[in-house]
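Exercise 7. Given the components listed, write out the predicted structure of the assembled complex. Treat all entries as one system.
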Amino acid sequence: MGDGVISFRVNGRAGVPPYLQIVQQVRQALRMGVLEVGDQLPTVREVVAAVAVNPNTVLKAYRELEHEGLIEARAGHGTFVRALPPGPPPRTFSRLGHSLDRWVREARAAGLDNEAIESLLKGTLQAIDTAEEDIA
Amino acid sequence: MAPPVPAIQTTRLTKRYRRNTALSDCSITVPEGSISALIGPNGAGKTTLLRLLCGLSEPSAGTALVLGASPRQAPESLAQVGFLAQEMPLYRRMTAADHITMGAHLNVRWDGQSVRDRLRGLDIPLDRAVGTLSGGQRAQVALALVLAKRPRLLLLDEPVAALDPLARRHFLATLTEAVAVAEGSLTVLLSSHLIADIERVCDHLILLAASHVQLCGETDELLAEHQILVGPKKDTGPIERAHTVVQATTTGKQSTLLIRLGGPLLDPAYQAEDVSLEELVLGYMGAAAPAAYAGLGPADPAELTGEER
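Answer.
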């Protein structure tokens, strides 16, 4: 695989279908700025040889991403990133990621374990969703 | 455009031995270009089915079409079928290079160079007796040799059962890469017990239990057609009328039902969850052999070990 091309991980026990794992990893790489417009994705053969998944799984993932307008297949050349997914640009993600990182460390220091942090996050999301619904 | 001819199509295929029936009324379709998993408990008839498909054994009843032809009547289409038996048949004292030479004499189509390239790429020596190689390397030699036939259909009987996890991954990578390169013209049917491998590699599955076909179809579609319902213990009549209950487990207050959807789910008393491949497979296997899987031991040992011995 050439420079700048991402590699995929496929976990047979993730509860998420393998094709969707690839779709999510491409979307994630686009959001985080790992992949940029014009970058080439690995070929089906390269993915299959590296992670031993069904070729149709990779084709299905690429079709889905193409349908979403994120990538495009250029005949005889390969598959390339066409656009970023809707939503804030990669730098917003990395900025929020940094502040979340600080917050999680603070929560850990205060004695919260992962389960406590997750339930706090879930509760907060629910409270905010409810408040926004009330306004709307 | 005419619909593509399936790589395998069997109709009520049956194999009886003197005392037992190894395979009964087996009707399956394997689409061309798929990697299909053949799953089932030992003795369910997996090996019997594979042997029927590659012409090593003759059906007692029913028909099999393999690449559009009957395996025992069409040697030219059989030349396009590769079969790898469970024990990875190789001559232990011969080298991989010897096997390549021998294959050239025994096969109509033979791409010896592909074996050399593939084994060199995997750092497997061509000039050492195959018996001195590791199990993983021997499996790769056997796979490379069967691929040298340039088969359109590959039948593999538990190819990775004896391999360690890394060797298994490498074997499956070689297999999936061969399928990717063939771009739809190579179909694989492989028997295996390893659900995690099947989940990554197979897009189609056939489940045999108690010598009958329990499931046959695209993995994604089969998963979407099933749900697990968890709810209070109550009359399951309404559910059974609308859907097919594959397996029901009941405790004091709770019922867990594996169902095949017959329409929309309407009962709010049940919480519906997506089913994993493992739950699906175990559900059907358990339903087909309740006594053996409820911890009571096999009802009839012959039925479990059956023909595969």
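Discussion: Confidence is low (pLDDT under 50) at residues 292-309 of chain B. The CA atoms of residues 96 and 126 of chain B lie 5 Å apart.
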